[in-house]
Amino acid sequence: MSPCWVTSSWVVAPHITRYYLLNRNRETKPYSHVSPIRTSILATITSQQDASSNGAGLFLPSQDSPTTLTRFVLENIRSSKAPEDIVDLISSIQFACKKIASLVSRAGITNLTGLFNEGKSINIQGEEQKKLDVLSNQVLKNALKYSGKMGVIASEEEDVPVTVDESFSGTYVAVFDPLDGSSNLDAAVATGTIFGIFKQEVSCLIEDMADNIEPSQLHCLASTLQPGSRLLAAGYCMYSSSTMMVLSLGHGTHGFTLDPEVGEFVLTHPYMKIPKRGQIYSFNEANYHQWDPVLQEYIENLKSGKNRSGKCYSLRYIGSLVADVHRTLLYGGVFGYPGDKKNPNGKLRLLYECAPMSYLIEQAGGKATNGKQRILDIVPNTTHERQPLILGSEEDVDELMHVYTKYAAKLQV
Ligand code: AHM
Ligand code: MG
To answer: Domain Fructose-1-6-bisphosphatase class I N-terminal spans what residues (predicted)?
Structure first.
């Protein structure tokens, strides 16, 4: 048989050739589609099952009973570390995250990359909305609405906080950025969902969504704005080489990885602890010339090793807050989106970006500040208020704060 014949058979009828090859493999090697590692695991399990079949015939290797996210939340409720309703809320959020993860991973195939409404749809912050920004917002809103526990929802993609239909209404406030870092989407770079949950302090009985809201009702919605220190729960879901949910219910920060084989988030990173000091800085250095001289000097010292640690730092910047914070949480160092000459308050939004991320970092032993004040102590004035954000390893953040304090003292002399 000539090589030409083989080539043309692929061109003329590739599906027939593929069918042949697949079936030939199946006939000769029944598990050839299973990796050698899995085959050997299967073999081990089978032999152990045989060995333990004298009793109930059950074999439960530890990975068969991992702590799922739901079990984790229920255990926290049982030990009074979380309110009962939180299980419904987290269950809605985890469903939404799975759905968004699937939408993100298939975006290139399903024509979900690119701008929504041909770029004519601009959100309240003046940014063009991507198709997946809009869709992810809808997915999260619906999931939370049907939890039956929500009163008000504030999202990066909504102009004002929206109330949930009266019939579904509960007493919690959810704040979220449905798809952070969406400018990275079309390049298949990591993105994420950020969320925070507060208890609603005043009840807002508003029957309709957004359109017919009276000034008094708006006041009521605005009164739901709370500082990060009052969060009952905060977390993010990262859509990357694996989908991860990192969550805090106020007792440590815990990481769950989505196991695609069973469709469940399982606890893989209990009690995450950020290193006391790292060796990475993560800032958009293209803004260097817009920064104040203190920050410029601090960054120069990290590069040259003229800092407290005496070590030269590396730069890592993905441009997706979730991914940059996730790496900082694991490897340590400092992440920042500071204010600059052009944008004195930086870019990141206090309520649904800075506060939940700072909560997670603090719960993992790190620090988060706007340069003057602890992020979690700042009471938002508006839903979409921006704040400079610097967070990370305790010693790294302290060093930057020390430089700022020294500089402020010098200016007063
Ligand atoms: P987004 O919420 O519109 O996606 O913007 C937030 C993102 C963050 O994920 C990231 O830290 C920052 O914007 C990147 O901004 P820049 O491109 O200016 O570095
Ligand atoms: Mg964002």
So the answer is: 68-270
